[in-house]
Inverse folding.
């Protein structure tokens, strides 16, 4: 299977993530010497659909996207709306209104396992 | 030779420890996917609930030993930047407006400056069993293994706080660890305790787990241990402690880890309480069946044993009752040795395999304070406190 994260929107998100990582080291805890990561590769295989690459690129700035399929059974459009809002307002995710709508449409159409 | 997919090959190249198995057998039907067994550096394969921040669950079978091994203990993080702390450079700062003599301690100073104590205690994530909720709720979809039991060695938090001098107006003690957010707008993971819980003799700053230095993924070089209270308070990679006269108002206290006020019979956290909701505090009386596993086939006429663990918030386990007839009749299981009121308690009972057919095995624990496990879930939106009577269905044939 081909690697999935390669489109421009996703690249934008990853570039932003890289920039933020660089910035965060300047005020990292003084006891810190490096950052450990699990050896397991990140799951980057979200289902096809309009907005997938934007979703991957922006969400994985802060977290792996396996959170998305893992939560799908608990989610519907209203729940995704609430989650995206939480990420923007409480966690400071750099997501514009337009991007938020695209992500909401994608996740609602693709990862909504909850009825209602 | 087994056929490797491209993904497998990439994993192998990346140093992935291939467990070669899915953990589905541990995961009740209806639990979300993402059940790959994977190993973090220094850990044995665990159920990978999420990769980054890492959330890894102990497989049910690994809860069988009385003490959960350090390499098998569950891992739970909220933030993506997790530094490997340099133990030699590490310092713990104790201060805040209600600290009369702020101080800074190195690890040798922490270890030698205060009496060392060890205690056995269950560490259970607030969200353990969230994946079993009905209706489903968002969050890490844990099954039964976001918990473990270990011997924690450290010093009493109260001894350290007294050295810093506690002003009469002290209300809460606030704890920060070395893990940090990536984005400036993400709230750091900072937790607080009421002053009386911080001063409880059982609350520790621990640097050892089961006689070994804390594993990186479980909070090296020192973490908070709050026996009886859920894992959210057991702050890892501890770096700062503030004693303060006001309620700490960070996101992880004011908005997250909250339950409906009055819904559960647990300790109150008055300075953080609102009419609607309040922080989760103590664990509820609970049990887990480790063997037999759900849908197991027991051979007719051959000996079989029911075994598991029961625990509560520190009143101890008084009894564990077992039903094998769909909760019509109950009998008492044999309890294992008591290793202290904060440890879990082994229970076991021989199963009657003389007749073929299905067996519905249910277990309910009773705590020293008289609380028992309920039949029904008290639904709450965050998916906490699932301590329903445990049931497994097996077949004798």
């Amino acid at each position: 299977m081909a690697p999935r994260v390669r489109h421009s929107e996703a690249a934008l998100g990853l570039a932003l993530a890289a920039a933020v990582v660089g910035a965060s080291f300047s005020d990292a805890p003084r006891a810190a010497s490096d950052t450990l990561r699990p050896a397991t590769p990140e799951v980057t295989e979200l289902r096809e659909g309009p907005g997938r690459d934007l979703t991957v690129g922006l969400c994985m700035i802060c977290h792996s996207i396996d959170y998305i399929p893992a939560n799908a059974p608990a989610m519907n459009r209203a729940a995704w709306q609430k989650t995206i809002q939480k990420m923007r307002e409480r966690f400071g995710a750099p997501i514009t209104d337009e991007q938020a709508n695209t992500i909401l449409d994608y996740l609602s159409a693709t990862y909504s396992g909850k009825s209602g | 030779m087994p056929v490797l997919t491209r993904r497998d090959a990439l994993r192998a190249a990346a140093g992935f420890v291939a467990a070669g198995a899915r953990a589905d057998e541990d995961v009740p039907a209806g639990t979300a996917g993402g059940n790959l067994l994977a190993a973090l550096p220094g850990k044995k394969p665990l159920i990978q609930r999420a990769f980054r921040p890492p959330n890894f669950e102990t497989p049910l079978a690994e809860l069988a030993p009385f003490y959960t091994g350090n390499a098998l203990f569950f891992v739970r993080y909220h933030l993506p930047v997790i530094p490997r702390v340099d133990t030699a450079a590490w310092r713990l700062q104790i201060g805040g407006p209600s600290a009369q003599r702020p101080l800074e301690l190195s690890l040798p100073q922490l270890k030698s400056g205060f009496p060392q104590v060890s205690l056995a205690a269950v560490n259970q994530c607030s969200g353990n069993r969230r994946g079993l909720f009905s209706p489903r709720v968002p969050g890490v979809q844990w099954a039964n293994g976001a918990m473990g039991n270990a011997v924690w060695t450290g010093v009493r938090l109260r001894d350290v706080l007294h050295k810093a001098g506690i002003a009469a107006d002290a209300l809460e003690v606030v704890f920060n660890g070395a893990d940090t957010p990536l984005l400036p707008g993400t709230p750091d993971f900072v937790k607080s305790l009421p002053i009386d819980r911080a001063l409880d003799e059982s609350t520790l700053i621990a640097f050892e787990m089961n006689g070994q230095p804390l594993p990186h993924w479980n909070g090296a070089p020192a973490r908070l241990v709050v026996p009886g209270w859920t894992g959210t308070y057991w702050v890892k990679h501890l770096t700062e402690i503030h004693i303060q006269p006001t309620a700490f108002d960070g996101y992880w206290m004011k908005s997250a880890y909250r339950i409906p006020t009055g819904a559960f019979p647990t300790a109150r956290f008055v300075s953080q309480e609102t009419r609607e909701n309040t922080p989760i505090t103590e664990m509820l009386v609970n049990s887990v069946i480790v063997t037999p596993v759900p849908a197991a086939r027991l051979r007719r006429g051959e000996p079989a044993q029911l075994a598991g663990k029961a625990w509560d918030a520190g009143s101890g386990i008084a009894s564990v009752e077992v039903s094998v007839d769909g909760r019509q009749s109950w009998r008492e299981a044999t309890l294992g040795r008591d290793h202290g009121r904060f440890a879990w308690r082994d229970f076991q009972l021989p199963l009657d395999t003389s007749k073929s057919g299905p067996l519905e095995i249910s277990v309910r624990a009773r705590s020293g304070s008289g609380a028992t496990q309920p039949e029904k879930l008290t639904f709450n939106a965050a998916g906490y406190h699932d301590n329903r009577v445990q049931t497994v269905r097996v077949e004798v044939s």
Observations:
- Chain B touches chain A through 56 residues (CB under 8 Å).
- Confidence is low (pLDDT under 50) at residues 1-34 of chain B.
